[in-house]
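Why does residue order matter? Because the sequence determines the fold. Keep that principle in mind as you read this record.
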Amino acid sequence: MKKKTDPQWKDLNPFLLCTIFSHLSLQDQLSCVPFVCHSWLSALLHSLFHHPNLDLSSLQNLDDQDAQLRQRQLSRYTHLLKLAIKHCKNWVSIYLPSRNMLDFGTLMYVAEHTPSISRVVVPCDASVDVYPIFMAVMYWKNLRAFHAPFRGFQFVMQLADYCKNIVELGLHGQFSVRDVSCIIEGFPGLKLLDMEGKDMRKDYVTFKEFRLQILEKASGINSLKMFMHCMRIRIKKPCEQCALVRFEG
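Structure:
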């Protein structure tokens, strides 16, 4: 008669494991679960990343009191993410955290291996360095929607150069007339534009006055570079090189 043995951890129902892990905090998920056995690791990867959207926003909930602990947790999360990418590259959206952003190399790795991403969302109150995101859009050429804090018209031009199919754009921050002009010229296919940031400069009246003029001029200009040259300041006379834009102050 065979001796009855207790069930092994690795023999637990995978669906049950995923359900349990999904109710744990990210700190608990990263503390010991990945190191128990292979089946627990697989269940954790499924719980964290097996979704239509790649949601990295939970990184903003990592412990802020202990810098060393936070760095260890971020390192473990990065390792798990790279494992997941080997098996799942078909995410359609990516939600980035407002803090505790992935390091530059990791974000580039994610961007390079997720060409199907069509939507990127960065919280409007994000305090992260946008430079990695600035570089990542070079890989996300199928973007249809992009929401992020506004960090200057150079970022907008980068989007316009690499992501020509954007139809939904949300930018939050302070804007100048030049910035608005760049957006209008750079994304002719826009169907939705959200520029309502809580710290938006109170010059909406000025934008309203220039709106029709900008739209009229932008509609006849094919070169964004030429248009930005003319709009570098609110000029009082036609540009000597281009003679394209004339705005009355």
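The first helix runs from residue 14 to 22.
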